[in-house]
Specification:
By secondary structure, this protein is of the alpha+beta class. The protein has one domain. The chain is elongated, with a radius of gyration of 20 Å. The protein starts with 10 loop residues before the first strand and ends with a strand.
């Protein structure tokens, strides 16, 4: 956005404070966001960059409810069935979801990873290093991740990284809520996700600059243990309805507070 808009942005850092939030029938999370822009920027340029940050693809997915999800189930017995988008008469599930731990996320750009062609035109915006920290009553956990836009094969782009988290969240939700037995082996449970990214990077950047929501279609396949009789589709659907990332994708609204400052 800054490069295309000829905005003299020198650097950017992003900090998130993640907080657990109770939702009806499920758990959820909220995020407080602080974006620090560095450079000789006018107030108008700051506002333009703030709008772009609100409408980046991942930001839209989690705050605007812009994801349209198609679910299907494939049982180990071989049957495949699409899940209705209008659930009715779903069973009550006795399991409980693990508590989302509070934590922080800090992201910083690696400025020397931007890639230009021989004419000096930017081809890839570069990579970012992300520090994640969560804590509970007994210990603190920390991770360092890489993501961004660089030559294919070096690091994952932002949306695939987000989808990996969605798949992991779905597996955790199903493992916690499905009534598994000795005959239904948890190791047979898998989740596969795919995203239709029609329009590519140009559409993403243009919509972010214009403050325009782009609805994207995602397909999630649950590979479930057992058969449709031993693991009914209604039970699987009831569990999926309570997954916190799925709720954020469909409803948005996780942003509790937002600040964009020039530092």
């Amino acid at each position: 956005m800054a490069y295309r808009g000829d905005i003299p942005l020198e650097d950017i850092e992003v900090d998130f404070q993640v907080e657990p939030i109770e939702r009806a029938g499920s758990i959820g999370f909220g995020v407080r966001e602080l974006v620090t822009l560095k450079g000789d920027l006018s107030e108008a340029q700051r506002v333009r960059l703030q709008r772009a940050s609100r409408y980046c693809p991942v930001g839209q997915a989690l705050t605007k409810g812009s994801m349209e999800i198609e679910d299907e189930v494939q049982w180990r017995s071989g049957e495949i069935t699409a899940i209705s988008s209008a659930p009715r008469n779903l069973p009550e599930l006795a399991g409980t979801l693990p508590v989302i731990q509070p934590g922080t996320v800090h992201g910083s750009c690696l400025l020397d990873t931007k890639e230009y062609d021989q004419d000096g035109v930017m081809q890839h915006e570069g990579e970012a290093k992300v520090y994640v920290e969560t804590r509970n009553l007994t210990h603190t956990s920390r991770w360092t991740l890489m993501a961004g836009h660089s030559s294919p094969g070096l690091i994952p782009p932002p949306f695939p990284s987000t989808h990996a988290g969605w798949a992991a969240s779905t597996v955790t939700t199903l493992s916690s809520l499905l009534p598994l037995t000795d005959e239904l082996d948890l190791r047979d449970l898998q989740v596969e996700v795919g995203l239709n990214m029609s329009g590519g990077r140009d559409l993403s950047q243009t919509s972010a600059a214009e403050g325009r929501i782009v609805h994207r279609n995602a397909v999630r396949r649950v590979v479930a243990p057992g058969t449709p009789r031993s693991m009914p589709i209604e039970t699987i659907q009831a569990a999926l309805q309570r997954d916190p990332i799925t709720i954020a994708y469909k409803e948005g609204g996780i942003l509790l507070d937002e600040k964009v400052v020039i530092g």
